[in-house]
Amino acid sequence: MSDKFKVLSEVIKNRRSIKPPKMNGKQIPDEQIWELLRLADWAPTHKITEPWRFLVYSGDKAKAFALEHAELYKNSISPENFKQDKYEKILGNGKNVSHIVVTYLKRSFNVDIPEIEEIAAVAAAIENILLGATAIGIAGFWSTGGMTHKNEMKKFLKIADEDIVMGILYFGYTDGFHDGKRIIPLSEKVTWNK
Ligand SMILES: Cc1cc2nc3c(=O)[nH]c(=O)nc-3n(C[C@H](O)[C@H](O)[C@H](O)COP(=O)(O)O)c2cc1C
């Protein structure tokens, strides 16, 4: 295999989901986040609709976003169903994080593309970001927890009803090593016809 393949395959296999509690609070230079967004912009996109959009929160704004997210949760639920540990978990995601990138799908109506293809394109853009982050030693976590998929989140972000929040991406640095696992053997996922 070529050297390029070896480098790429190492990055792909070493990418791990590392949650904010495992981050160490150090700040990522903004320019590095821009570099990751430039990678996202090269994801495949049917009919070049480029549906990915990013709302970046850095420094104090990242902490403020986590607080707003926790408050959105609190205000969306009846006091009987409110869970303090869930509130704390959402809030805690702002603690050691450096940048938060809310990624959403901007739906275009001037091109006839099924929604599934736009979702696929934005997911590919997110993977580009996560792989780029791995390559430069940044820990990342793609979350769809909390209020990610709720209408209240769309309203808070001021995005259109037809748009889709694809994930809240948390970035920072981590000190530890994080192992990955897959349970189903690849051979069970592949049907090879010859
Ligand atoms: C679309 C998507 C949404 C995810 N949302 C969450 C989430 O809300 N909470 C969570 O703990 N992990 C979430 N994850 C991360 C997965 O838990 C993680 O990818 C899985 O455990 C495999 O670990 P790895 O990414 O280190 O290989 C999400 C992953 C994807 C692809």
Topology:
Blueprint: H1 3-14, H2 30-40, E1 52-58, H3 60-76, H4 84-92, E2 99-105, H5 115-135, E3 139-143, H6 151-157, E4 164-172, H7 186-189
The structure holds flavin mononucleotide.
Description:
The chain is α+β, with helices and mostly antiparallel strands and 194 residues long. It has one domain (26-189): NADH Oxidase (3-Layer(aba) Sandwich). It contains seven helices and four strands, in the order H-H-E-H-H-E-H-E-H-E-H. Strands 1-2-4-3 form a four-stranded antiparallel beta sheet, sandwiched between helices. The longest helix has 21 residues, at 115-135. The model has no long low-confidence stretch (mean pLDDT 97). The structure holds flavin mononucleotide (FMN). Flavin mononucleotide is lined by residues 16-17, 142-145, 167, 180.
Rg, Å, rounded: 18 Å
The count of strands amounts to 4
CATH topology: NADH Oxidase
Mean pLDDT: 97
Q: Could you spell the SSE succession in H and E letters?
A: HHEHHEHEHEH
List the ions, cofactors and other small molecules found in this model: flavin mononucleotide
Helix fraction bin: 40-55%
Would you identify the CATH H-level superfamily?
NADH Oxidase
Label the overall shape. globular
Tell me the distance between the termini.
Answer: 23 Å
Number of domains: 1
Give the C-level CATH assignment: Alpha Beta
CATH architectural name = 3-Layer(aba) Sandwich
The residue ranges in which pLDDT falls below 50 over 5 or more consecutive positions are none
Strands of the widest sheet, in order across it, are: 1-2-4-3
Structural class computed from helices and strand pairing: alpha+beta
Query: Major β-sheet, in short?
Result: 4 strands, antiparallel
